[in-house]
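Table 4 source record.
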Amino acid sequence: MFKLGEKQILTIVKKVDFGMYLAKPATPEDRILLPAKQVPQGAKPGDELEVFIYKDSSDRLIATTNTPTLMMGEVKELKVLQVTKIGAFLDWGLEKDLFLPFKQQTRKVSASDTVLVTLYIDKSDRLCATMNVYEALKTDSPYKKDDMVKGRIYQTSDNFGTFVAVDNIYSALIPKREEYGNLVIGTDIEARVVEVKPDGKLTLSVREKAYLQIGKDAEEILKIIDSYDGVLPFSDKASPEVIKHETGMSKNEFKRAVGHLLKEGMIEIKEKAIRRIK
Protein backbone atom coordinates (compact mmCIF):
# COMPACT_ATOMS: atom_id res chain seq x y z
CA MET A 1 0.00 0.00 0.00
CA PHE A 2 1.16 3.49 -0.82
CA LYS A 3 1.04 5.98 2.07
CA LEU A 4 -0.89 9.14 1.27
CA GLY A 5 0.71 12.37 2.42
CA GLU A 6 4.16 10.88 3.00
CA LYS A 7 7.48 10.58 1.19
CA GLN A 8 8.64 7.06 0.42
CA ILE A 9 11.28 5.31 -1.64
CA LEU A 10 9.91 3.38 -4.64
CA THR A 11 11.51 1.56 -7.56
CA ILE A 12 10.98 2.38 -11.23
CA VAL A 13 9.39 -0.75 -12.76
CA LYS A 14 8.25 0.47 -16.18
CA LYS A 15 8.86 3.38 -18.54
CA VAL A 16 5.99 4.72 -20.70
CA ASP A 17 5.57 7.75 -22.96
CA PHE A 18 3.78 9.73 -20.25
CA GLY A 19 6.08 8.90 -17.35
CA MET A 20 7.35 6.08 -15.17
CA TYR A 21 5.50 3.50 -13.11
CA LEU A 22 6.84 3.00 -9.59
CA ALA A 23 6.32 0.18 -7.13
CA LYS A 24 7.64 -1.44 -3.98
CA PRO A 25 9.94 -4.41 -4.65
CA ALA A 26 7.70 -6.69 -2.59
CA THR A 27 4.56 -5.79 -4.59
CA PRO A 28 5.68 -4.91 -8.15
CA GLU A 29 2.14 -5.38 -9.49
CA ASP A 30 0.87 -2.49 -7.31
CA ARG A 31 2.03 0.51 -9.34
CA ILE A 32 1.76 4.29 -9.22
CA LEU A 33 2.49 6.82 -11.96
CA LEU A 34 5.24 9.41 -11.84
CA PRO A 35 4.36 11.88 -14.65
CA ALA A 36 7.00 12.50 -17.32
CA LYS A 37 7.66 16.07 -16.20
CA GLN A 38 8.53 14.74 -12.73
CA VAL A 39 10.99 12.08 -13.88
CA PRO A 40 14.62 13.02 -13.11
CA GLN A 41 16.94 13.15 -16.09
CA GLY A 42 18.65 9.81 -16.71
CA ALA A 43 16.25 7.82 -14.51
CA LYS A 44 15.69 4.24 -15.71
CA PRO A 45 13.87 1.06 -14.65
CA GLY A 46 15.46 -0.41 -11.54
CA ASP A 47 16.38 2.97 -10.08
CA GLU A 48 14.99 4.01 -6.70
CA LEU A 49 13.30 7.39 -6.28
CA GLU A 50 12.03 9.24 -3.22
CA VAL A 51 8.53 10.54 -4.01
CA PHE A 52 5.53 12.09 -2.29
CA ILE A 53 2.15 10.39 -2.76
CA TYR A 54 -1.11 12.30 -3.18
CA LYS A 55 -4.13 12.36 -5.51
CA ASP A 56 -4.48 14.34 -8.73
CA SER A 57 -7.50 16.41 -9.82
CA SER A 58 -9.21 13.19 -10.95
CA ASP A 59 -8.69 11.60 -7.52
CA ARG A 60 -6.12 9.13 -8.86
CA LEU A 61 -3.06 8.22 -6.80
CA ILE A 62 0.01 9.92 -8.23
CA ALA A 63 3.66 10.41 -7.29
CA THR A 64 5.75 13.56 -7.41
CA THR A 65 9.42 14.25 -6.81
CA ASN A 66 8.46 17.72 -5.54
CA THR A 67 8.34 18.20 -1.78
CA PRO A 68 5.16 19.86 -0.52
CA THR A 69 5.23 22.46 2.24
CA LEU A 70 3.16 20.17 4.46
CA MET A 71 3.29 16.40 4.97
CA MET A 72 1.32 14.00 7.15
CA GLY A 73 1.94 14.56 10.85
CA GLU A 74 3.31 18.10 10.40
CA VAL A 75 1.78 21.46 11.31
CA LYS A 76 2.58 24.38 9.00
CA GLU A 77 1.32 27.81 7.98
CA LEU A 78 -0.14 27.84 4.46
CA LYS A 79 -1.52 30.66 2.35
CA VAL A 80 -5.19 30.70 1.32
CA LEU A 81 -5.39 31.00 -2.47
CA GLN A 82 -9.16 31.16 -2.81
CA VAL A 83 -12.41 30.54 -0.96
CA THR A 84 -15.25 28.78 -2.79
CA LYS A 85 -18.75 27.54 -1.96
CA ILE A 86 -17.34 24.26 -0.64
CA GLY A 87 -14.31 25.53 1.28
CA ALA A 88 -10.88 27.08 0.86
CA PHE A 89 -7.89 26.04 -1.22
CA LEU A 90 -4.35 26.40 0.08
CA ASP A 91 -0.94 26.67 -1.55
CA TRP A 92 1.25 23.77 -0.45
CA GLY A 93 3.72 23.76 -3.33
CA LEU A 94 2.08 21.13 -5.57
CA GLU A 95 0.11 21.48 -8.81
CA LYS A 96 -3.15 20.49 -7.15
CA ASP A 97 -4.05 22.93 -4.35
CA LEU A 98 -4.85 21.58 -0.89
CA PHE A 99 -8.52 21.61 0.12
CA LEU A 100 -9.59 23.04 3.51
CA PRO A 101 -13.29 22.20 4.07
CA PHE A 102 -15.52 24.69 5.90
CA LYS A 103 -16.10 22.11 8.66
CA GLN A 104 -12.35 22.00 9.31
CA GLN A 105 -12.02 25.78 9.76
CA THR A 106 -11.89 27.08 13.33
CA ARG A 107 -12.51 30.58 12.01
CA LYS A 108 -13.67 32.13 8.76
CA VAL A 109 -10.77 32.48 6.33
CA SER A 110 -10.24 34.77 3.35
CA ALA A 111 -7.97 34.76 0.31
CA SER A 112 -4.36 35.72 1.19
CA ASP A 113 -4.80 34.69 4.86
CA THR A 114 -2.11 32.51 6.37
CA VAL A 115 -3.61 29.60 8.30
CA LEU A 116 -2.09 26.99 10.60
CA VAL A 117 -3.09 23.51 9.43
CA THR A 118 -2.24 19.82 9.42
CA LEU A 119 -3.16 17.02 6.99
CA TYR A 120 -5.82 14.35 7.36
CA ILE A 121 -7.42 11.76 5.08
CA ASP A 122 -11.16 12.30 4.60
CA LYS A 123 -13.92 9.70 4.19
CA SER A 124 -13.29 9.64 0.42
CA ASP A 125 -9.62 8.75 1.00
CA ARG A 126 -8.39 12.20 -0.08
CA LEU A 127 -5.77 14.41 1.51
CA CYS A 128 -7.30 17.54 3.06
CA ALA A 129 -6.26 20.24 5.50
CA THR A 130 -7.71 20.97 8.93
CA MET A 131 -7.23 23.86 11.32
CA ASN A 132 -7.90 21.47 14.22
CA VAL A 133 -4.22 20.84 14.83
CA TYR A 134 -4.40 19.70 18.49
CA GLU A 135 -3.60 16.04 17.83
CA ALA A 136 -0.64 16.88 15.55
CA LEU A 137 1.17 19.16 18.02
CA LYS A 138 4.18 17.83 19.92
CA THR A 139 4.67 17.68 23.68
CA ASP A 140 8.46 17.53 23.93
CA SER A 141 9.24 21.25 23.93
CA PRO A 142 12.53 22.54 25.39
CA TYR A 143 10.74 25.20 27.45
CA LYS A 144 10.53 25.43 31.24
CA LYS A 145 8.62 27.47 33.81
CA ASP A 146 8.86 31.27 33.36
CA ASP A 147 10.28 31.04 29.81
CA MET A 148 8.75 33.47 27.34
CA VAL A 149 7.39 31.79 24.19
CA LYS A 150 5.68 32.78 20.96
CA GLY A 151 2.82 30.95 19.30
CA ARG A 152 -0.38 31.12 17.30
CA ILE A 153 -3.89 30.84 18.71
CA TYR A 154 -5.67 28.06 16.82
CA GLN A 155 -8.77 27.39 18.93
CA THR A 156 -10.76 28.79 21.86
CA SER A 157 -13.02 27.07 24.37
CA ASP A 158 -15.49 28.51 26.86
CA ASN A 159 -14.65 25.62 29.19
CA PHE A 160 -10.88 25.29 28.89
CA GLY A 161 -9.44 28.56 27.59
CA THR A 162 -7.28 29.44 24.58
CA PHE A 163 -5.29 26.81 22.69
CA VAL A 164 -1.88 27.87 21.34
CA ALA A 165 0.62 26.22 19.01
CA VAL A 166 3.96 27.36 20.44
CA ASP A 167 6.47 27.86 17.62
CA ASN A 168 3.71 26.25 15.49
CA ILE A 169 4.99 22.95 16.90
CA TYR A 170 4.21 22.46 20.60
CA SER A 171 0.90 22.00 22.41
CA ALA A 172 -0.07 24.73 24.90
CA LEU A 173 -3.11 26.16 26.67
CA ILE A 174 -3.90 29.52 28.22
CA PRO A 175 -6.43 28.58 30.95
CA LYS A 176 -9.41 30.85 31.52
CA ARG A 177 -7.80 32.24 34.67
CA GLU A 178 -4.73 33.35 32.72
CA GLU A 179 -6.56 34.95 29.79
CA TYR A 180 -6.28 38.70 29.32
CA GLY A 181 -7.29 41.06 26.54
CA ASN A 182 -8.59 40.08 23.12
CA LEU A 183 -7.38 36.58 22.29
CA VAL A 184 -8.49 35.80 18.73
CA ILE A 185 -7.99 32.65 16.63
CA GLY A 186 -5.27 33.20 14.04
CA THR A 187 -3.31 35.82 15.98
CA ASP A 188 0.28 35.41 17.14
CA ILE A 189 1.00 36.07 20.80
CA GLU A 190 3.83 36.13 23.30
CA ALA A 191 3.21 34.39 26.61
CA ARG A 192 4.91 33.11 29.75
CA VAL A 193 5.16 29.43 30.66
CA VAL A 194 3.54 28.95 34.06
CA GLU A 195 3.70 25.16 34.08
CA VAL A 196 5.03 22.22 32.12
CA LYS A 197 2.54 19.42 32.71
CA PRO A 198 3.64 15.78 33.26
CA ASP A 199 2.52 14.95 29.72
CA GLY A 200 4.73 17.73 28.33
CA LYS A 201 1.97 20.16 27.38
CA LEU A 202 2.55 23.78 28.31
CA THR A 203 0.33 25.99 30.44
CA LEU A 204 0.73 29.64 29.47
CA SER A 205 -0.23 33.07 30.71
CA VAL A 206 -0.39 36.34 28.79
CA ARG A 207 -0.28 38.18 32.09
CA GLU A 208 2.78 39.24 34.03
CA LYS A 209 3.40 37.88 37.51
CA ALA A 210 0.84 39.45 39.88
CA TYR A 211 3.15 42.06 41.43
CA LEU A 212 4.16 43.27 37.95
CA GLN A 213 0.69 43.07 36.45
CA ILE A 214 -1.00 45.33 39.01
CA GLY A 215 0.74 48.43 37.66
CA LYS A 216 -0.21 47.62 34.06
CA ASP A 217 -3.80 46.88 35.05
CA ALA A 218 -3.97 50.17 36.97
CA GLU A 219 -2.81 52.08 33.88
CA GLU A 220 -5.42 50.31 31.77
CA ILE A 221 -8.18 51.18 34.25
CA LEU A 222 -7.18 54.86 34.17
CA LYS A 223 -7.45 54.81 30.36
CA ILE A 224 -10.91 53.25 30.60
CA ILE A 225 -12.01 55.83 33.21
CA ASP A 226 -10.78 58.63 30.93
CA SER A 227 -12.81 57.15 28.06
CA TYR A 228 -15.88 57.68 30.29
CA ASP A 229 -14.93 61.34 30.88
CA GLY A 230 -13.41 60.62 34.26
CA VAL A 231 -16.24 58.61 35.84
CA LEU A 232 -16.43 54.84 35.42
CA PRO A 233 -20.14 53.83 35.60
CA PHE A 234 -19.48 50.80 37.82
CA SER A 235 -17.36 49.99 40.87
CA ASP A 236 -15.46 46.99 42.22
CA LYS A 237 -18.84 45.70 43.44
CA ALA A 238 -19.98 45.09 39.85
CA SER A 239 -20.50 41.54 38.61
CA PRO A 240 -17.50 39.58 37.31
CA GLU A 241 -19.20 39.49 33.88
CA VAL A 242 -19.45 43.29 33.64
CA ILE A 243 -15.86 43.76 34.79
CA LYS A 244 -14.56 41.15 32.34
CA HIS A 245 -16.52 42.65 29.42
CA GLU A 246 -15.40 46.23 30.12
CA THR A 247 -11.79 45.67 31.16
CA GLY A 248 -10.74 42.16 30.13
CA MET A 249 -9.77 41.52 33.78
CA SER A 250 -11.11 39.11 36.36
CA LYS A 251 -12.87 40.65 39.34
CA ASN A 252 -9.88 39.93 41.61
CA GLU A 253 -7.45 41.53 39.15
CA PHE A 254 -9.72 44.56 38.85
CA LYS A 255 -10.03 44.93 42.62
CA ARG A 256 -6.26 44.69 43.11
CA ALA A 257 -5.62 47.39 40.51
CA VAL A 258 -8.38 49.63 41.85
CA GLY A 259 -6.97 49.20 45.36
CA HIS A 260 -3.56 50.27 44.05
CA LEU A 261 -5.04 53.40 42.44
CA LEU A 262 -7.00 54.21 45.61
CA LYS A 263 -3.85 53.91 47.73
CA GLU A 264 -2.03 56.25 45.34
CA GLY A 265 -4.84 58.80 45.69
CA MET A 266 -5.68 58.68 41.97
CA ILE A 267 -9.32 57.60 42.24
CA GLU A 268 -12.36 57.88 44.47
CA ILE A 269 -14.70 54.89 44.81
CA LYS A 270 -18.44 55.51 45.04
CA GLU A 271 -21.23 52.96 45.52
CA LYS A 272 -21.81 52.52 41.77
CA ALA A 273 -18.96 54.41 40.14
CA ILE A 274 -15.26 55.17 40.26
CA ARG A 275 -14.11 58.78 39.74
CA ARG A 276 -10.64 59.83 38.73
CA ILE A 277 -8.97 62.46 40.92
CA LYS A 278 -6.79 64.88 39.01
